[in-house]
Amino acid sequence: MENIRFVNAPLKIKFEKISEDESVYKKEYDKLSNSEEDSVGQWLKLAKARGETGDSDQVLLKLIVELHRKVDDLSAYIKDEKPTFLDLSEEKNIDSVGFDHFHLEEDGLEAGARYYGRILMPFFPKREVPLFFKALRADIAEVMLIHDQDKKDWSSFMSARERAMIREAKAIKGD
Question: Can you list the domains of the chain with their CATH numbers?
Answer without folding.
Answer: 7-34+88-173 (2.40.10.220), 39-78 (no CATH)
